[in-house]
Amino acid sequence: MNQEELEINVLALGDIVGEAALNYLEENLCKIKKDHNVHFVIANGENVANARGITKKLFYRILNSGVDVVTMGNHTYSNKGIYDINDKRLLVPVNYDENTRKKGYEIYNFGGTKILVCNVLGKRLGASLNGFKVIGDVINNVSDDLKKELGKSVVSNKNSLNYKYINYNLLEDKIK
Predict the structure, then answer these.
(1) Are 3 and 40 in contact (CB under 8 A)?
(2) Is 18 within 8 Å of 51 (Cβ atoms)?
(3) How many whole angstroms separate alpha carbon 51 and alpha carbon 78?
(4) Is 15 helix (H, G, I), strand (E, B) or coil?
(5) What does the domain layout of the chain look like in residue ranges?
(6) Strands (DSSP E) along the chain, which ranges?
(7) What is the pTM of this model?
(8) Reported CATH class of domain 3-175
């Protein structure tokens, strides 16, 4: 299979809330990945510590269950345990505030293919920065190699991102 024929199945999981949800993930994710041919898993861990943030121990339990990237949200800093985690597989919202921009996205390698994962928080949930503008900034800042990969991606995916980004900017201009 050549590079352009590579198909990657991504599973995106919402909030893992508390111990029961984490136990379920640990017991079932491997089977789910196998049954559905899932290659890459992104899960939200902002509520795993009793619905208030994350700790280092819980972060590594999530990864050990088979998750590749853990995202956070409006409860990112609700537990001081997050400050003990220094791992590129933990993504805080790129638009939480100016200090989190470089911690909110990462480029991962899967079988020679680069995957850009960007964590964006909705404005109503406490983001101080415009998510659509920040996504544009991220795309503009990624390496030329990744831009080439994005250029090869399925036209419908690119059009979807462009449509949302461009139309939001047009709407934002009218709101001002």
Answers:
(1) no
(2) yes
(3) 9
(4) strand
(5) 3-175
(6) 10-15, 40-44, 69-71, 90-91, 105-110, 113-118
(7) 0.77
(8) alpha beta
**Quick one: pLDDT at residue 61?**
97
Residue 116's contacts (CB-CB under 8 Å, 6 or more residues apart) are: 105, 106, 107, 138, 142, 146, 150
The three-state secondary structure class of 104 is coil
| CA atoms of 172 and 138, how far apart (whole Å) | 19
Give the Cβ contact number of residue 107 at 10 Å.
Answer: 15
Number of residues that make up the chain = 176
Place of tokens 């009793």: 50
The DSSP output letter for 97 is: -
pLDDT per residue over 110-147, tens digit each?
877 778 888 888 766 566 667 777 777 777 777 665 66
Given the DSSP bridges, would you call strands 10-15 and 40-44 parallel, antiparallel or unpaired? parallel
Please give the structure tokens belonging to residue 64: 């050990």
Question: Known catalytic residues?
Answer: 75
Rounded CA-CA distance 39/12 in Å is 11
